[in-house]
Amino acid sequence: MTIPISTTIDKIFKQYLVLMNGVLSREKRLSNLEIDVLEKMLYIDHIYRHLPKNNRDKILFHTKTRERIRESVYNISPNSYNNVLSKLRKKGMLIGNTLGVTNPLKDKDKVVIEFRLELNAE
94 has which bridge partners? Predict the structure, then answer.
């Protein structure tokens, strides 16, 4: 079954994370705040996709970038932001100071998500 969903660059990362969040295990499931922070990080990573990964990571975790993300996500405090980053690391969404989740767009203009459900033999 194919369900086409029209979207914009401003929405696609959040839509992707919300959709994928539904199939994550309970321990890895993301809160709304974690989704909002990770969405901004994926968006920034996408903007700088032409740069090498290590340069994009430096930009993502630069003080000014962190400040702008914090301000754009409910204007959360630096401590709250650091707590969110710690939770994202524990859930494998960040690995140290790098994204642990792949940009779903890469160099394309669409995201294709395929689910395959298989019954276990009993």
Answer: 99
DSSP reduced 3-state for 113: coil
pTM above 0.85, yes or no: yes
pLDDT tens digits, the chain, 122 residues: what are they? Answer: 778 888 898 899 999 999 999 988 899 999 999 999 999 999 999 999 999 999 999 999 999 999 999 999 999 999 999 999 999 999 999 999 999 988 888 767 777 777 777 888 77
Do the beta carbons of residue 14 and residue 36 sit within 8 Å? yes
Residue 40: name the closest of 61, 15, 14 by CA.
14
Distances (CA, A) of 119 to 107, 116, 122: 34, 10, 9
